[in-house]
Design a protein that fits this description.
Rossmann fold; single chain; 6-stranded mixed beta sheet; disordered C terminus; 24% strand; alpha/beta; 2 domains
Length: 256
C-alpha cells in the first residue's frame, strides 16, 4: 500500500537579491516517515525549512500540506494545521520551570490560549497533559527545575516536549543534536524514533550527524547549492558517487 504524501514542495525557490538560497526544490514526504535533509553548509536546508514552515515567503513555487496549497501561510496558521517546527537554537523560556514551559505550550493550543499568565492551578487539564509529555521525553523528575538549569541535552528534550505539546502531525526538526555532547545524542534520537513509531507522526529532519541520519532515516534528500542533488534510501545515498564527491566524502566510502 502506497503511503500518502503528507507534505510536498513544487519548484520551491527563495532568492535574496542575486543569491539563490533555494533554487527550485521538489520534495515529497510520506506520511508517518522519517525523512532527512542533508547537505554541506550553505546548501539551503534551513532556508527550505523556513519556507515550508511559513517563516519565509518563497520567490516562486508552492508548498502543499495534505494536498492543500499552504504557500505563504504564517507559522501560526500552519501550526494549527498540524505543522510543528523546532530550531537550531533552543527556543524555551529559561526563567520558567520545565513544567511551566510545557504547560504554556499545551495551553496555547486550547481555548485558554489568551489566558497564559492566569493562575496555573485553574488549568489542571493542561498540567496533566504537560506531565505526560515531559515523561515521554524522559524529563520526569525535572518538572520543577528552571529551564536555564538544564543541561544542553535536556534543553533539547524540553524543546521537543514543547513541540509535542501542540500535538502536530508533522515535526520539522532543525539540527536537533546541534551542540549536544556525543554521549547525549543516542538518547535524544531514541526519543525521536520512539515518537514516530508509537504516534505515527511524520518527521522531517535536518541533521549534520551522518551516523544518526543513516541509522534513523527511511528517505534522505541531499541538497547542494540550493538544489536537490539526490534522494533515496540511506544505502542508496551512501553509495551515490555524486553525493560522496559533494558532501559525504570519506564517510560514504567508509559506509558504502
Amino acid at each position: 500500500m502506497t503511503q500518502e504524501i503528507i507534505l510536498e514542495t513544487r519548484d520551491l525557490a527563495k532568492h535574496f537579491g542575486g543569491l539563490k538560497a533555494v533554487g527550485g526544490v521538489n520534495l515529497r514526504v510520506r506520511a508517518g516517515s522519517l525523512h532527512a535533509i542533508i547537505g554541506p553548509n550553505g546548501a539551503g536546508k534551513t532556508t527550505l525549512f523556513n519556507l515550508i514552515s511559513g517563516h519565509l515567503k518563497p520567490t516562486r513555487g508552492q508548498v502543499f500540506l495534505r494536498g492543500q496549497d499552504v504557500t505563504g501561510l504564517p507559522p501560526h496558521r500552519l501550526a494549527h494545521m498540524g505543522l510543528g517546527r523546532s530550531f537550531q537554537i533552543t527556543n524555551i523560556f529559561p526563567n520558567l520551570t520545565v513544567l511551566e514551559n510545557v504547560r504554556l505550550a499545551v495551553q496555547a493550543r486550547g481555548p485558554d490560549n489568551f489566558k497564559l499568565w492566569h493562575d496555573y492551578r485553574r488549568f489542571s487539564r493542561y498540567i496533566s497533559r504537560a506531565r505526560e509529555v515531559i515523561e515521554y521525553v524522559s524529563l520526569k523528575g525535572k518538572e520543577h527545575l528552571l529551564a536555564s538549569a538544564l543541561s544542553h541535552g535536556d534543553k533539547r528534550k524540553l524543546e521537543l516536549a514543547i513541540l509535542l505539546a501542540s500535538d502536530p502531525d508533522i515535526l520539522l526538526l532543525d539540527e536537533p543534536t546541534a551542540g549536544m555532547a556525543s554521549e547525549d545524542v543516542p538518547e535524544l534520537m531514541r526519543i525521536v524514533e520512539h515518537i514516530r513509531q508509537t504516534t505515527g507522526k511524520t518527521i522531517l529532519l535536518v541533521e549534520h550527524n551522518m551516523d544518526v541520519v543513516m541509522r534513523v532515516s527511511e528517505r534522505i534528500t541531499v541538497m547542494h547549492r540550493g538544489r536537490v542533488l539526490a534522494e533515496g534510501t540511506p544505502q542508496e545515498i551512501a553509495a551515490n558517487e555524486a553525493v560522496q564527491e559533494a558532501y559525504l566524502g570519506s564517510w560514504g566510502t567508509r559506509t558504502g
